[in-house]
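Exercise 7. Given the components listed, write out the predicted structure of the assembled complex. Treat all entries as one system.
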Amino acid sequence: MGELRSSMDFGLRALGSRVAVLLLLAGCVPRQAPKPAVVGSGQTVAYAGALHFFDEPTRLAVPERVADSLRKSLERRSLKAELVSALPGEFGTSDATLTRLQLIDEASDDELVLLLEARPIFDSQIAGRFRWSVKVDFTLAKQGELGTAQTSSWDLPVFLQFYHQQEAEALAEATPMIERRMESALDEFLRGL
Amino acid sequence: MRSLLASLLLLAAPAHAGNDVGGYFRVSARPDLQGGNGSLGYWNLYGRLMNERSYGLLNLRLGLLEPQQGSNEVWTSVHARIEGGSIGSTDPGNGRLDNLRLSQVYVKAGNVLVPGVTWQVGTLDWYMGDLGLYDFRPANIFFESAGISGRVDNDKLELVFGVGDAGYFMRPDAYNTILTPGGTLRLRFGKFEVGGGGQAYLEPQVLGKRTAPHSTPDVEYEDYVRGEIVENFLADNPGFENQFTDPVPTSASSFKLVGYMGFGGFGPVIWNNFFVNYTKVHPGTRVSETFGGRDYDIYIKELTDERYQLNMGNELQLRIIPDRYDIAWGFYYGNYTDGDNDILPTDHDRVFGSTVLRNQVYITPTVHFLAEGSFAQEVSRNGNTFRNRADSIFANSGGTPDTEGLEYGDSDTRTTVQGKGGLVLNPLGPGIFNRPSLRLLYGAQYSTQNNAFGNDFVESLDQFNDFGNIERHVHHMVSLETEVWF
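Answer.
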């Protein structure tokens, strides 16, 4: 019985070692970005973001990682991103997506217009964390033809560790989920062009 | 026309749902070839990793009127929570619904009566933060209460105040009102935060109510712990079975003070949380003794009203090499005293402390290596309470076998060391506490106590014990587990 147990122990350790090696090798395989389903034709995209705060003015903001991911997604689709950083104050005070699109449209000469609006809202405390719901509206339109605008809306749950983390941290935490959904939204929009 | 069409199209865009389902799951498979029940050690003092069992929590939220950011418009939402420590194929409960409970139901409403205040009516549980390495929340209030609370939260402060009733939580089968007023205040100064607060538990005297606080006078503490109160009373007063001492009505009270300090966001310091609480444990109600075929109730308020606890914990998260190596270090200290008890080793009279260090290396953004170690020591104030050997004594007095002895085992101290390590897959990227996590871990524990993990070994030294006695101080296992907040 002792020998059987020791051989079972050895077998389990050997199996565990092999599984661990396979997992390591799998993790080290170079990650390839997904091939886009639809490719543009060299258009430029003017984009801006609006981050809503519960008790502060809305900020003109696109998290750096989201912006970087957006640029790369657009490049894979033969599109070029141009961040619009100078917008009138109405961009922050207005709550209307159409108004914001118009302001981006007027501030740029790019062929396409992209708007990312985020509204993180504190939800509740769950199992030691602070649950926030990040409501994102991702809107794409052709310049001068805002009637072509398509909006994808997502409610993304994030769990912050600390009380001092608020809207900006909630949006940053939602970035991996935004990145993945942006890919589908871009393809859907370009398919319609 | 084109603008109108654009507007209509945008209006037709899908609106955000006001309802969602969130929660938390922790599921593990831990084959234990050493006879344990799937936990590496006894409790989370050694770190929550591999010491916690499976757990499930569903949180439901219905947004009836969504908050309008930047305005004072009224908003309201309904919340409910179902949770329990049982999931199919992972524990004895096997996920049966009788292992779950509807732990929280409340309505939140903002900007009603007073702008900027969020009211909550229903269950009120609220905490200032969490020690993630331990899954401990020392600075929480209203955990036991249902009532009403208000919360004010801006970039400079958070104020929570409220009042409730903890009677059903603390006395589920013998309800009596226990009023719980309380509150916390947290102040923020840039990258530094400090806060504190507390909660009182007030149980009034209620004449004629069996479940209200009472005290049976003239009871010796040793008779109480031995269950010999009635026996000794009748030995002194033969024939007085119908004249057992009447209980005296009284009131009972207790309290909890909490404190918090946090800082970080500079250099390698992600954040440091420190929590402390000082608690007077609420007195007990009654115990029953059976003597001569008859049951007697003894009311123990005076025997259980000097129990105090000091709990403090700290957790520091450091970014050692950005996107490559983080560590989290925590410590926890508890000092529990019972002024009524000098003779019986209990959990109300002990000192314990531990430290846990977790390292996580990000081999790739989604494949990590985890290594965690912990050291803990627990000391009983009133004598032996741990058996360190397979043939250790049981009941004893000062280490001398004594069937009437109040001590147990051959040591008043338990020292435990744990080490865990393995692969962690985090689909959402780096971060010690980033979830979901899929983990393949190996863990080992050394304890001075024999078989210091959940088990059903036969401990009897009787010669007719068919299974023999096992002495084991090293316990190890593999764990396949996942943890997710959603």
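Discussion: The radius of gyration of chain A is 22 Å. Residues 2-28 of chain A form the longest helix (27 residues).
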